[in-house]
């Protein structure tokens, strides 16, 4: 399903946004018939509340949508989208009450609210469309929504239909759509091509591990996106309990997010050279699974002691980051559903990120606020470096103690990205635990829209 705005030819129904402070003033300016209807309904303009206003024929002619109060709006986002589930099928157009500085954000929220995952069961979302508000770049917002839809679809698809091969197929389809090139290193070729940790993590599965390498653009600054593509994570020999395994289809959420961001970049034609690296594996259990206590070689030459096979994401990312850094890109980003520690620290709604460059971090935070894609900066805390140095090997994949787990994981990745690359790491959750405006329960992108907003400044586009 491609998210699309309605047009005037769809005969849109007028929508009036009214907040608690402005309701009475709005009523006073309306014809007597409409005043009577609104007062008689007892309408209260809480966020998402809807009042349908019929015309002389009895058909809906206008809609009143609650916009809450300044306090309630501060506690949520995509306020207009909160009304979408309550609206009947049809096309709509905001006639009044929409703040101009929020027009693009609210229009995007409406498109995102039209998402539904119906591959296996259920009915398609009802067609409730919106005419793009004045001043909104409709094509841009549609491209952003389409990238988010791709991310959600990939995460929501269960692992039996979204293994390494299917993730490769999704990346190939995206490359074909935008005229990008793609190369894939699979199975035993990972060893001959020096990606030993990607191979080791994925070798226990009968679904061959692989490294997906997509490129687009021939001029401009170089941007490399690296996404964790663990299509299912049993925990390996450090087997997860059943309750922790239930959502592991989303452990490729980092890959899904960078592919969604790649779609946005390519669809909008940003003048840069894009590279997307996705190590795609399944962390399974069999006789040849890697073990606690193993010491693994890596592409960069650093040895890694395995103290927990359930800390596998950083291993596959490490080889991919080292490979990406070899081309010295102007900026490199990794996105991964990496640590439970990040969720404990900031919850499910915030995407923590790690960045050594203050100017980059500050611009990302500004962009996050602008596009309602919340981020929170975390530290690459150098004093914790000792915790990832076990002595028997160069690095430890799972330091004992558990404190600062998101930070030590990020420090591990930074060792492979290198000191000469402008590198940021995003520890995303990739899942909406309960439905919210524009975000149904299920897979969700985090951080991609903030990055897209910031890239022109960060890369001088």
UniProtKB/TrEMBL annotation:
Q: Which residues form a coiled coil?
A: none
Q: Which Gene3D superfamilies match?
A: Leucine Aminopeptidase, subunit E, domain 1, Zn peptidases
Q: What's the Enzyme Commission number for this chain?
A: 3.4.11.23
Return the broad EC class: hydrolase
A GO BP term here is:
proteolysis
What keywords tag this UniProt record?
Answer: Aminopeptidase, Hydrolase, Manganese, Protease
| CC per GO annotation | cytoplasm
Q: Is Protease there in the keyword field?
A: yes
**Molecular function terms from GO:** manganese ion binding; metalloaminopeptidase activity
Query: Which residues does the UniProt record annotate as the domain Cytosol aminopeptidase?
Result: 308-315
Stated family: Belongs to the peptidase M17 family.
* PANTHER family the UniProt entry points to: LEUCINE AMINOPEPTIDASE-RELATED (PTHR11963), PEPTIDASE B (PTHR11963:SF20)
Q: What is this protein called?
A: Peptidase B
Give the encoding gene's name: pepB
């Amino acid at each position: 399903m491609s998210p699309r705005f309605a047009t005037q030819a769809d005969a849109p129904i007028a929508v009036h946004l009214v907040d608690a402070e402005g309701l009475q003033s709005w009523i006073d300016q309306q014809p007597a018939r409409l005043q009577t209807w609104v007062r008689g309904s007892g309408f209260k303009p809480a966020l998402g509340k809807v009042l349908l206003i019929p015309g002389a024929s009895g058909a809906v002619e206008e809609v009143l949508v609650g916009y809450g109060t300044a306090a309630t709006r501060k506690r949520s986002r995509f306020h207009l989208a909160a009304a979408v589930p309550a609206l009947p099928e049809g096309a709509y157009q905001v006639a009044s009450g929409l703040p101009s500085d929020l027009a693009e954000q609210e229009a995007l929220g409406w498109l995102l609210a039209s998402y539904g995952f119906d591959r296996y069961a259920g009915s398609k979302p009802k067609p409730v469309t919106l005419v793009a508000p004045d001043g909104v770049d409709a094509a841009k917002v549609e491209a952003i929504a389409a990238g988010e839809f791709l991310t959600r679809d990939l995460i929501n698809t269960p692992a039996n239909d979204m293994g390494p091969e299917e993730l490769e197929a999704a990346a190939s389809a995206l490359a074909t759509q935008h005229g990008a090139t793609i190369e894939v290193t699979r199975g035993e070729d990972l060893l001959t091509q020096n990606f030993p940790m990607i191979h080791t993590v994925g070798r226990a599965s009968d679904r061959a591990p692989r490294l997906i390498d997509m490129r687009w653009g021939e001029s401009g600054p170089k941007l490399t996106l690296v996404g964790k593509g663990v299509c299912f994570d049993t925990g390996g020999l450090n087997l997860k309990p059943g309750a922790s395994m239930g959502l592991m289809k989303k452990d490729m959420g980092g890959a899904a997010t960078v592919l969604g961001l790649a779609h946005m970049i390519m669809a909008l034609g940003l003048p840069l050279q894009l590279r997307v690296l996705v190590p795609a594996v399944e962390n399974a259990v069999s006789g040849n699974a890697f073990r606690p206590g193993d010491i693994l070689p890596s592409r960069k030459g650093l040895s890694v002691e395995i103290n927990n096979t359930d800390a596998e994401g950083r291993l596959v990312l490490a080889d991919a980051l080292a490979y990406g850094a070899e081309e010295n890109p102007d900026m490199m980003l990794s996105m991964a559903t990496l640590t439970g520690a990040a969720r404990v620290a900031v919850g499910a709604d915030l995407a923590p990120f790690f960045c050594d460059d203050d100017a980059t971090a500050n611009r990302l935070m500004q962009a996050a606020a602008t596009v309602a894609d919340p981020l929170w900066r975390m530290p690459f805390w150098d004093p914790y470096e000792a915790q990832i140095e076990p002595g028997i090997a160069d690095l430890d994949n799972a330091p004992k103690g558990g404190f600062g787990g998101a930070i030590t994981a990020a420090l591990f990745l930074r060792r492979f990205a290198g000191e000469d690359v402008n590198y940021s790491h995003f520890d995303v959750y990739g899942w909406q635990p309960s439905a919210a405006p524009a975000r149904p329960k299920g897979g969700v992108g985090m951080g991609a829209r903030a990055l897209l907003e910031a890239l022109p400044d960060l890369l001088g586009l």
